[in-house]
Amino acid sequence: MSDLPAAPPAPPERGAPIPLAALRALRPKQWTKNGLLFAALIFSGAFHDPQAIGRALLGFAAFCLMSSSGYVLNDTLDREADRLHPKKRLRPIASGELPVSAAWVTMALTLSLGLLLASQLGTGFLIVGLAYLSTTLSYSYVFKHMVILDVMFLASGFVWRAIAGALAIAVPVSPWLLLCTAFLALWLGFNKRRAELRHVGAGAGTRKNLAQYNQQMLASLESIVTSNTVLSYSLYAVLGPTPWMALTIPFVLYGIFRYVYLVEQLGEGGAPDETLLKDRPLQATVVLYGLTAIAVLLADERGLLPKLEPSDLGRPSAAAR
Fold it and tell me: Is the pLDDT of residue 66 over 50?
């Protein structure tokens, strides 16, 4: 038996046209993450304003392009390690379908167009876009190799998205929205690390700091952020635009429980965007959540719901006293 280490699986042969490979390198499936920019549009009640919808869509497009430039950069820097991963080895840059020189050109063009669109939404939006890009660069070059900080920097990218969504339509930034976003992103990030550790192992060489994690540690971190995610959203729902938003809490709970089931029982979670795009119950939960939130906000705006003050939620009614 040979003592030589097993060679990594060979990447697929080149064959896809470069434009198609460049499009795949932009990871359009992960544009679903930028849907967070629409949160402010919904919760502010501006979802029936055509101008606000147009600005939100423009902001969404800008962040899709900016985030894709970050994906191309990350895949270019990680191409050697990605070739050791069972799934990432199929990415265009790691597989050789997209030459490194073409990847740099793709990144530059995508970034330039994204910044151009961002500038159309005002200085504040552009500054947040640049802050997001700075966070992405910091992650790609430094913090992706640091345990815990890698997940925290990934989560901060979602917080910038939430802020950008509010700035795009010129509404106040809700601290509750930022808190919910941060905890949810941390929760997804630790679940992602847990799935990676389970699938490829700590010593596979696909991620340098994966060896510093273990399943028990990740389970503890996940437990902390799960409870805070549920608590912060529940408080936001009750203390936000209308206490009747509490009707959306069951959808949030089910979505979290369903995702935990997919991670623990079916081995999903390594790519949250792919999990969302292929799991029908999760998709239905997102749609029903959005419809319920819009229905509650519209009904409250038109005075169709009984008045319910947050301070009255724990107080017995006169009939019960």
Answer: yes
